Every structure is written in C-alpha cells, then in structure tokens.
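Example 3.
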Amino acid sequence: MARLTSAAGRRLIAGIPTGWLLLLFLVPFIIVFRISFSEVRLAIPPYTPLLTFRHGSPALELHWSAYQFLFTDPLYVSSYLYSLKVAAVSTLCCLAIGYPMAYAIAHAGSATRPVLLMLIVLPFWTSFLLRVYAWIGLLKNNGVINNLLMSLGVIHHPLALLQTDFAVYIGIVYSYLPFMILPLYANLEKHDAALLEAAADLGARPARAFLRITVPQSFPGIVAGSLLVFIPAVGEYVIPTLLGRTDQLMIGRVLSDEFFENRDWPVASAVAILILLLLVVPILLFQRYQRRELEGAR
Amino acid sequence: MRERRLVPRVALVLGLAFLYGPILSMIVFSFNNSRLVTVWDAAHSPTLKWYGALLHNEQILGAAWLSIRIAVIAASVAVVLGTLAGTALARLGAFRGRLLLAGMVTAPIVMPEVITGLSLLLMFVALGQLIGWPKGVGALTITLAHITFCMAYVTVVVQSRLAGFDESLEEAAMDLGARPARVFFRITLPLILPAIVSGWLLAFTLSWDDLVITQFVAGPGSSTLPMVIFSKVRFGVTPDVNALATIMVLLVATGVAISTVWMRYRERRRARDLQLAAAANL
C-alpha cells in the first residue's frame, strides 16, 4: 500500500496510534522516572518538584533518597532476588511441561490440531483472576487436594500447600502455560520432517536426532515462550497475593504497597524503574523476536 | 517412531487435565450447598442457591454492568487504533517513526502490569494538574488505560493477518481505478475482518478481566467486577464466586465456539469463491 495512499493519509494512519501511545505509554514512563528523583512531602502532589526557583533563577533538584532507601533496606533487595527466582523457576517449569505438549500438538493429525489448539487457548479467554482463585479451593488446608489425600489415607494431617513457594509456582505455571505453548507450537509446526528422516537413515537414534536436530531448531520458540512467561512473572501481583507467602513478598506487591499503603510515590516510582532496568534486556529480546515473526511471514 | 510419540501424548493429556481440572472443580462446587465451599454437602446438593444469591447481589451486578460498558468502549476504540497501527506496520513500508511505533506497540504485552498501572496513574494526575483534565480518576481513566493495552494485542493480530496477504489484490484494484478509501473498504477491510473480530473479542476479554492496571487508575465509586471479586476472595473462598465463575466460563465457551464456527464458515466460503473465480478463468 506504499503507493496506494497520499502522504497525508500515510501520516494519519501511522500518526494517530503513535500519538496515542506517546501520550499514554511513553510519557507516563518519563513521569515515573522523574518522580523517582523526588522526595516525599505532605502536599498535593505528594512529591517535591524537580525544578525550583531561587532568586528568580531555576535550579535542578535531584534527590537520590528513594534509590538509597531501596538499597539500604534489605526488604527490597530480597524481594527483587525472590521475584527473579520465582520467575526463573516458573519459566523452567512451563518449558518442561509446555514443550512436550506443543510437540504433541505439532505432530497431531490435521483434524485434531485445531481442536487441541482451541483447548490450549480457551482457558486464556476465561477470567485470569478466577482461575487463580480456583487454586485456593484446591490447595487450602480443608481444600480438595488435602481432602482427597486424607480420604485415601495417604496423609493423616493436611499438608500446608497454600501460602508457599510451591503454590506460587503452580499459579504462575497454570496461568502462563498457554503463552509458552503457542510460540513453541508455531515453531515446531514449521519443522521439516525430512531432516529427522535423514538423521534416521544415517543411523541416529530418535533421542539423539531429537536432541541434535529438533531442539536446536526450536530455539527461537523456546526463547519467545520463555520471555513471554518470565517478563510478566517478575512483576506478578495477583498470584503471590492470593496464593503466596506472607513473610516474603514479590516486588510487584512491594511496589503496590509502597504506593497504596505508604503513599510514597517516589519510592514506588524508584521500584518501578529498577524493575524496568532488570527487564530491559529481556523486553528488547522479545521485541526483536516479535518483529522477525511478524515481518518474516511476508 | 512410536515410543518417541508416546511421551508427548501422555504429557498433552496430563497438561490438559492440569489446565481444566481447577475450572471443573469450581463448576462442581458452585452447586454445593455447604458454606465451606470445598466440603461436599451430599445431603443438600446439588443446589442452585448460590446462583440465586448472585442475582440479588447489587454490588456484583453493578460492577459487572460497569465492566461491560468499559470493555465495549475500550475494545471498540482499541480495534480502530490497533487496525491503524497494524496497517501502518504491515503496509506502509519504512516510514519515519516505524521503530518507535513497533516498539511501543509490543511493549505493553509483556510489561509487568504494576508498572503500566503506576505510570498511567501518575500521568493522569500530572495531566490533571497541568490542564485540569481528567478531573480525578474513575470510569474514564479506566477506559483510557484499557484502550492502551488492548490496542497492542489488536495491532499484533491485524498485522500478522495482513502480513499473510501480499498487496497484489490492493494494487489490482488501484490499477482498475479505485480510490484509496474505496480500496481499503472493499478489499483490505474484508480481508482483515476475521482479525478485527478476533481482535475485538480479545480486547473485550482483556478489558473485562483486568485487575492490576484498573486498581491503579480507578477511583471511589468505580469498582469493576474483577476489583469486587478480588476484594471478596482475598480473604478466602466464597461460594457465590464459584457460581459467577461457572456463568463466565459457560459464556466464554459458547462465544468462542460460535466465533470459531463463523470464522471457519467465512474461510470456507472464501476458498470456494476463489475456486469459482479460477474455474471461470479456464
């Protein structure tokens, strides 16, 4: 359509969404960045201005106190590390469960494949919040799993399943599994069966052919699926709040508490900026994959 | 070959059980008489009493109505913006600001929601102080926030659909003298209609479902359904939420089934038209 539209039309088509995202996506980040260099004060808005006027001349007032605070209180550092650990473990679990599932769908008959794909996507269309909530009923002390195990005589006292790391892993894997399976499937489906046949003809056992041919070829799918799980999981709020520990918070919860409970906008902003710093490389990697996927299809 | 396929197949069956087990348990226990939710009261179950309680819960009904209105507006605006962005990225070639638009459009998909929510709220507050609009936070700011993250998904859906077609159809229409607007409405739009429909449904679902971003940009008196549910379940399981979940799962399942059938019908009709056109040329 490069030659289909006038210059003015092209400017409108690209300009309207760009303008919207500048105002409601980019500018907000700049504001967060700016507030993270302020100090709290009792006023509206509850933070110090960046520019002050002394004797008529402007002076820039940068405060590092929010960042200093984050690094002196061990609560924040341990929340960061804990969030990274939870996200990494959940991503690996998703990969371990999702890879064979995606593989089975890619090798299913052409009639069953769309049905299986729909079954994978369908939970994603139902409420995320309610699906996490369902696990409370399953995991709590007098919940379904404990009741079942006790009535079978496997255990005699209920296991503490809720409010543990295990419950958070389950919640994240359960909610994000479709995001792992879909890019993996999109990749595995494109593989050329002739390569595996050639390997078999040359005497490679199936396991070896899988490890030497299928796995390396599916690397872009593995990276895309892992990023789609890892990045949002680091800042996850709902799952750890409903299922997780109360003595160790994830960083998304810390941000929310700083903002809503302590009303400390500069510290909440500094937490957000530090999460972004951690995630900037994964996010850029994901965007590169996404661009190649959408533009390579032509 | 066979033993190699067995492991993935078992994994697929177990994985699907993992995905659907919790949803099924919610449905089953929505018919349970006991207030304890997960302890089956065999003497008085199944019962529909939690569904009845739901119908008289003004708070839940009001929140659901607010969520529906926000989701319809957010999805509709997001579809327009997302179609523009998807068309620009797939059809305009290299234009100035392309990298900026492409970057901003995919970022909200993976961005942790707490960060998006915080930054949007701080922007609304700053804007309110600068120009006096928006006045406070509420349904308006929720809708603006939802449009922003929904349009990212619509863009990806539309862009990948457009990338699947080459531009020869549009160029042929141009060569026959059709004006750009006519080409768009007669050729491009019908081609990407399935993407627009699924983009709208996706946007509606995401808006209807969002909790974290909404909590940041909501004000007093603008509680959406997820906010009401979250405040209920934060301190334990309640049986009427199970009934609500069952209703929502059934609605979604029907909606997805209908749209899948409709889309497949459209695709088949298009394939038949192409065959007829090819036969006519012989």
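Chain B touches chain A through 105 residues (CB under 8 Å). DSSP finds eleven helices and no strands in chain B.
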